[in-house]
Amino acid sequence: MNTFILLVLIFLACPTIQGQNSSHAAAQKEYEPEIVSMYKLVNRVVPEYSKHIVLERLAPDSVDRFELESRGRNLVIRGNNANSMAVGLNHYLKYYCLAQYSWFKEEPLELPATMPKVPKKVSVRARVKERFFLNYCTYGYTMPWWDWSQWEHFIDWMALNGINLPLAITGQEAVWYEVWSEMGLTDEEIRSYFTGPAHLPWHRMQNIDRWGGPLPVGWLENQKELQKKIVARERALGMKPVLPGFAGHVPPCIQRLYPDAPLASLGDWAGFDSTCWCMFLDPESPLYAEIQKRFIAKEMEMFGTDHIYGIDIFNEMIPPSWEPDYLARVSRQVYESLAAADPEARWLEMTWLFWNERKYWEVDNRIEAYITSFPKERHLLLDYYCERQPVWERTNAYYGVPYIWCYLGNFGGNSMLAGNLDTVNVRIERAFEKGGDNFVGIGSTLEGFDCNPFMYEYVFEKAWDNPLTKDVTAWVEHLADQRAGRKDKEMRAAWRLLADSVYNKVSSPGQTVRINQRPTMGDIKEYRQYYIAPTYRYNNIDLLEVLDHLLAAGGNSRARHFDVVNITRQLLGNYFGDLYADYVKAYKEGDYERLHQVERRMCDILDDTDTLLATESAFLLGRWIRDARAIGNTEEEKDYYESNARNLITTWGEEDALLNEYGSRAWAGLTATYYAYRWKEFFKEVDAAIEEGRPFDEKAYHDRICRYEGLWWRDRIGSFEAEPQGDGVALARKIAEKYREELIKRYRKRN
Question: How many whole angstroms separate alpha carbon 442 and alpha carbon 460?
């Protein structure tokens, strides 16, 4: 294609170039693909401003950087690549337009009618080379049902937040299907080896096989085509997608073809029975290298490559041997198989196992042996949970192996106000000061999108030399302005109080409210759920004060609506948990009048919570189910996807499984038909026992409610709205007045 035709195509694709002089367009010649991609992003994100945004390329640099400058009526964004330019655009949106581009597609970007000026030129540089995002689990707890429109919005969000190393594992089952087919396995053997769609992340991490399968044929093709779009768009915006490699996980039936293959069972994971256990092929076998080569070649053919591969061989599993020589040998041979398949390959690996199974790994130099057995420059580690425990500080900075400081922040997609801004700030700065030259990046490894999105934006802003990020108080004030869409003293007061009182606690598994717990009197230990930890360390009256500030704030932004609903549901959830303690106490003391008073209030809270959640698109079970069903080609497939979607956020496996409630969340519909149902049945049975003068039979209740939990996801009990209903701000105002007196009476006593 000659230069003239290419320039015409750029002119048609990017109306923002129209009207600019030809010498400027010609100057972009070398960088046309990136410039075109960025203009398209501008047109998607800020179409209202696009004709007044000019993109210019800075000279290539080893450090990413951007500049902002007003030139007449235009905003000039310069960057040394598309990713830097996108961060520059986001900086302008946040700090000049006081607007936030949300990761929730349903929350629109709200802009001033007139483009604000940049008073003087802004220059910002990246502090780290790599900015990583996502977790294998996010593909189960948030993304399994996404279509291209959701992915397109999210990829734009990643670009705006400077992410250049996204985990990209969609569609790999289509690759594996072809590899295993060509090696001689049957269609039934292959698809039955896969789990159901929402559980695939744990299949990919060598945790479970088969549960919820067989995987429909239609899923394979759907996800393959989706992945092609995902990686193409990520690359167009300056990202390097991290694709999967072969970790040694094979179908057990491969022994039909290779009877002498050295396989070892990785054993139990999370209580799943032996039919779900994964088989690990020893990398010493020539078959390992053959499978790696086949997989990488097929993956390259389908999706291309940027030569970075995610491989995790012992995540939450026990290796066949703990001998350091064995661990070093295995990791070296995995790398050698990868390098043979792609000579430019780098192995990216999460280090969750070094923290989660630290009692095994932190002895006999096992970590050092495992991670230093091949060239360090070919290895890249994700320090997975640094807001709680930076493993680099426990391992002599990973013995020189390059690593990325990561904020996790959410387990299972749980809905709980949680985050530790000050600690995150201190720990990132400590990594810059003492983390060594092999500290090369900042990232996030969240398990699910949650109700604290600002925490992730803060982490990614720390990757740039914006001085505001070192002053948490100042950064929070700007955040408040962005949430309001203007400077508003009430919004600022709300967010200052949140930062000072609420956002100072690290996230942890089971961080959810008591509403989501299967009810119990607490006498029988086995009926307690491990993954429910409804604790909070602040005075709940603080949330009422935050809510009052939010309700007093001006404007009617969607961000404010989300904040109001989010704070109110947490306020009610905390109060519900404290009332539950009153309920159990009244029962044990035989104070049945008090028990019935508390019961009625708890039922009110359950109903009010569900009605409130229904007003906010981010808190709708109906969206989750709608998106799952949309993938199916037949009614049978649609029902299958819906059941699988329901299972992950409730029992996680069979009823009363170890991971029961791990993925719990505060969603409208889920609260009414699942959580509230369990509580109201509990109250009925306790009341009946009191009336009949007998002890409450907790075992009988437990057995019956377990059966209901299974029916709820298998038989798909209830139908749910996929669009928000009602005005959350108006409803929150009524709720605040309804409970105000009793909240003040209860929580003021703690001061």
Answer: 7
124 forms beta bridges with: 66
Q: d(Cα 37, Cα 215) in Å, to the nearest integer?
A: 35
Task: Give the angle subtended at the CA of 653 by the CAs of 650 and 658, to the nearest 5°.
Answer: 85
- Residue 620, classed as helix, strand or coil, is strand
Distance CA 122, CA 462 (A): 17
Reading the block at residue 191, the tokens are 């698809």
Q: Phi and psi dihedrals of 298, rounded to 5?
A: -65, -40
Find the DSSP H helices in 267-411. 286-303, 324-341, 352-356, 358-361, 366-371
Q: Which residue has the tokens 């990868």?
A: 338
Does the model's pTM come out above 0.85? yes
How far is C-alpha 134 from the geometric centre of its chain's CA atoms? 6
In terms of DSSP bridges, do strands 165-166 and 249-250 run parallel, antiparallel, or are they unpaired? unpaired
Q: How far apart are the first and last CA of the chain?
A: 73
What tens digit of pLDDT does each residue of 12-28 get? Answer: 444 444 334 333 444 44
Place of tokens 């390959």: 345
Measured distance CA(663)–CA(474) in Å, rounded: 34
Q: What percent of the chain has pLDDT over 90?
A: 91
Residues 86, 160 contacting (CB under 8 angstroms):
yes
Determine whether 189 is exposed, middle or buried from the number of CB atoms within 10 Å of its CB (0-12, 13-18, 19+).
middle
- Average pLDDT over the chain, rounded to an integer: 94
H or E segment to which residue 92 belongs: helix 82-95
CB 142 within 8 A of CB 154: no
Q: Would you list the DSSP string of 219-280?
A: HHHHHHHHHHHHHHHHHHTT---BEE---SEE-GGGGGT-TT--EEE---STT--GGG--EE
The three-state (H, E, C) secondary structure of 103-159, written as one string: CCCCCCCCCCCCCCCCCCCEEEEECCCEEEECCCCHHHHCCCCCCHHHHHHHHHHHH
Structure tokens at 339: 């390098």
Predicted confidence (pLDDT) per residue in 50-85, tens digit: 999 999 999 988 999 999 999 999 999 999 999 999
| DSSP helix/strand/coil, 498 | helix
Distances (CA, A) of 317 to 16, 263, 383: 53, 15, 18
Whether residue 214 has a cis bond before it, omega within 30° of 0: yes
pLDDT for 344: 98
CB under 8 Å to 163, separation ≥6 — which residues? 83, 131, 132, 133, 239, 443, 460
Query: Given the DSSP bridges, would you call strands 263-265 and 279-281 parallel, antiparallel or unpaired?
Result: antiparallel
**Cα angle 242, 246, 250; round to 5:** 140
CA torsion sign for 449, 451, 454, 456 is: negative
| Distance between CA atoms of residues 127 and 86, nearest Å | 16
